[in-house]
Amino acid sequence: MSEDEFIELCSRPPAIHRFPAAMAKRIRQVCQVLTEEYDGQATNVWKDARSGGEVKANLGRLPGFGPDKAAIFTAVLGKLRGITPEGWRTAAGYYGEPGTFRSVADIVDSDSLQKVRETKKSVKAAKKASPERDPAVRTGP
Q1: Which end of the chain is more exposed for a tag (fewer CB within 10 A), N or C?
Q2: Alpha helices, DSSP H only, in the chain?
Q3: pLDDT in tens, 20-34
Q4: Measured between alpha carbons, how far is residue 92 from residues 5, 110, 121 in Å?
């Protein structure tokens, strides 16, 4: 379907995002890359990757996937889906550490969701209290 038709579809209630047009364009871009470079299969992004770094790099080349989103998705694959090539925790960085509650990669139930929310709140408060700290350096809660 055309981009305009897809935007209209994604904007119908319930909309896919609070900014449905922007998200519709991004989804369409990702689908186009998956079709052109990965045989239309999202799993091909990581299926043959020889390392966690390669998984993260492949994810980072998708439209809208910056370093943090690629790291989080690498952690999701490792922690929740059993996709664990060598070095996946290192590639996932802060989000790949075991026993933490830092992102969607750690959410398995309502209790873990609450813990992730608490961690995010605490990290945000620490950043606010230390504005001189480099926001790109994540040290955890």
Answers
A1: N
A2: 3-11, 20-37, 52-60, 67-81, 88-92, 110-129
A3: 999 999 999 999 999
A4: 36, 23, 21
Over the stretch 23-71, which tens digit does the pLDDT of each residue have?
999 999 999 999 999 999 999 999 999 999 999 999 999 999 999 999 9
Pairwise CA distance, residues 25 & 22, whole Å: 5
Examine residue 14 and say whether the peptide bond preceding it is cis (omega within 30 degrees of 0).
Answer: yes
CA distance 69 to 134: 19
Both structure tokens of 117: 């929310």
Residue 94: Cβ-neighbour burial (10 angstroms; 0-12, 13-18, 19+): middle
Closest CA to 108 of 136, 133, 86, 76: 76
- Tell me the two tokens of residue 73: 């998705």
